[in-house]
Amino acid sequence: MEAQQKASADLLEVAARLRATKQDPALAGEEGARGHEVGLDWARTAATYEELSEIAGLGLHGWSVLPVPAEHTLAAVLRVEDLPQDETGAFELSVQDPWVRGLVTACGEVWREVQPVI
Q1: d(Cα 72, Cα 31) in Å, to the nearest integer?
Q2: Where residue 39 falls among pLDDT bands split at 50, 70, 90?
Q3: Is the entire prediction scored with pTM above 0.85?
Q4: Bigger pLDDT: 1 vs 52
Q5: How far apart, in whole angstroms, are the C-alpha atoms of residue 75 and residue 61?
Q6: Three-state secondary structure call for residue 109
Q7: E-assigned strands of 4-107?
Q8: DSSP class of 118
Q9: How far, rounded to the nearest angstrom, does the alpha carbon of residue 117 sit from its chain's CA centroid?
Q10: CA 111 to CA 63: how far, in whole Å?
Q11: Are 78 and 85 in contact (CB under 8 A)?
């Protein structure tokens, strides 16, 4: 079991290193890169299983607006980032926004990393 855990950890490190060398069009520009950074941090430190699996499953096609309710753990991050919210404290994120595309891409990356071990 210990050898399997070490192999899994090594595989995750290799995957992270290779991803860092891969150019992703969703991360083009400063806004996309910033959203990606925020997404990685949220996905690794605050997201629940359900929240991360939902956002990671979106990809970048087939949707236009992602509603984020006020009680979602991502909402706290969006407030810090000073994104516009409605009167209830909820957010609507557009797939057209490079920052949002970076965030969703990061969530997918983290989900793929952890999926084999959860």
Answers
A1: 22
A2: very high
A3: no
A4: 52
A5: 22
A6: helix
A7: 65-68, 91-94
A8: -
A9: 18
A10: 19
A11: yes
CA angle 108, 113, 116 (to 5 degrees): 120
Of the segments 10-14, 20-24, 60-64, which one has the largest average pLDDT value?
60-64
CA-only gyration radius of the chain, Å: 15
Q: With the C-alpha atoms ordered 32, 38, 41, 44, is the resulting torsion angle positive or negative?
A: negative
* Confidence check: pLDDT of 28 > 60: yes
Question: Of 86 and 12, which is predicted with more confidence?
Answer: 86
Which residues lie closer than 8 Å to 77 by C-beta, 6 or more apart?
A: 38, 41, 42, 46
Cα gap 75→99, rounded to integer Å? 15
